[in-house]
Amino acid sequence: MQKPASPSRLFWPAQPLPAAAPPGSWRSFSVPAARKNFPDGEICASYNLVTRHVLAGRGENTAVIWDSPVAGEQRRISYVALQGEMEVMAGVLRGLGVQKGERVLVYTVIAMLACTHLGAVHVVAFGGFAPKECAKRIDAAKPGVIVTASCGLEGMKRKIPYLPLIREAVGLSTHKPRWTVVRQRIQMPAVLDPRRNEREWKELVETVVPVKEGHSLRAADPHYILHTSGTTGVPKGVVRPLSHLVGLSYTTHSIFDFHPGATLLCASDIGWVVGHSYIEYHVTALYVAPSALRAILHSDPTLSGMRQHNLASPRSVVDNWWSTEAGSSMTGLLPGQQVKPGSAGMPLPGWDVRVVDDDGYQLPPGEQGNIVVALPLPPTALSGLWVEKERFWNSYFNRFGGRYFDTGDVGVMDSEGYLTGAIIAVPGVTEAVVVGMKDRVKGEVPVAFVVGDAAEEEVKAAVRREVGAIASLWAVVTVPEEAVPRTRSGKVQRRWFRSVLEGFRMG
């Protein structure tokens, strides 16, 4: 696959997803903050995610497998059942006054789909968030309703009461949601306080009127808000527009080779027993962070149940590179393309990935520089930061004067179009992060933070051998795995390393 000469023409499938109104044009673009894909198109997301599968005769097929090793419970949810639960939960939210465009703070899949069905914007927060962090998200998104459970389960014995955390977060926040809906768990039921406008989910569904028809929204309307870590300590509310469904459909079909009947396991906090879950559920595609992969390999070294994008010898691990802001893989491999060890793959359709110097000039193959994405961005990318236009510009576009989207990462493009990671190929290295540090003479020098027991000189020699002397490492810092800063989904916070070296805080 060669790097596209006209990337803006590459991304789109021949036929769009079912939509309420087909787009007459596919992009409106002036400045980054005003980017809109399919600006005059409309789409019903809940129809595409759930209903169309029922209408296509796949209603009794399994849509979601819920497996809680901690609770000792398993459940298979068919598309018909998922549709029913979505419509009921949408009725609950509508009964509480939730309207199109309003934000709802959630962390459960059914609630996410229900918000989508209503045209509301769901804001995802992990269960058990510290009250201070949760309060930041409440003030940023200003949700009308919070949907939570009475408790969470971590490990075989630990129970975390969620409602006290929510109450404290609401007490700390300036914005006060109208309602808090609580799903009681038998492991630790909560006593609700009507004075705090707390409602029990079970009581609400007894009298609910299900919402049968999903709302259609314009492609540029927000679908959800996902907060990502900012090095200032203030989370950034990444806005994902409805148009991202086009890229999501492309990714699942073309990159993961996903089709009806296949099973995708996407794991974050994978835990210890999930090492065998992919065999139990006949998983055909496994999408995990490196830490989760190590847990699986420890549990089942042979990995005999996988195919294509798999981990089973003699097949290869297929790496990809993306971010919360991207919404889909920016680099990777399509099925059938040759894997290059230590590489995160090639720029995928829709992503014009480049390596530039600090002045924004594109570097030749083999030279390390800043990884950027030429504009315009594809539909899966963020359309902005929630109510923070200035921060959106300063975080991603200001550094290169609006010419590129700044990923904050450093890398090398080789002559074949691969982003190389020679350090990962060094025996004893399990993970590596390379960031640039300012240098008065050279402008910027690469510093590697590695997890593992490889010697510094061995790592430096590998980079010189695989990439060339131009990418010679200035320093190699060994970091314990537990000290690597990560997001809740297991991704390394690269900007944190960079901000430490540069001695300033990036937004």
Automatic annotation (TrEMBL):
The yes or no answer to whether the keyword Nucleus is present is no
Provide the alphabetized UniProt keywords.
Answer: Membrane, Transmembrane, Transmembrane helix
Domain annotation AMP-dependent synthetase/ligase: ranges: 55-282, 315-374
Source organism superkingdom: Eukaryota
Query: InterPro entries from the xrefs?
Result: AMP-bd_C (IPR025110), AMP-bd_C_sf (IPR045851), AMP-binding_CS (IPR020845), AMP-dep_synth/lig_dom (IPR000873), ANL_N_sf (IPR042099)
Whether Membrane counts among this entry's keywords is yes
State the Gene Ontology terms under molecular function.
Answer: propionate-CoA ligase activity
Question: For this UniProt entry, which segments traverse the membrane?
Answer: 104-129
Outline the extent of the AMP-binding enzyme C-terminal domain. Answer: 422-491
Q: Which PANTHER family match?
A: ACYL-COA SYNTHETASE (PTHR43347), ACYL-COA SYNTHETASE SHORT-CHAIN FAMILY MEMBER 3, MITOCHONDRIAL (PTHR43347:SF3)
Q: Give the protein's recorded name.
A: Propionyl-CoA synthetase
Give the source lineage, highest ranks first: Eukaryota, Fungi, Dikarya, Ascomycota, Pezizomycotina
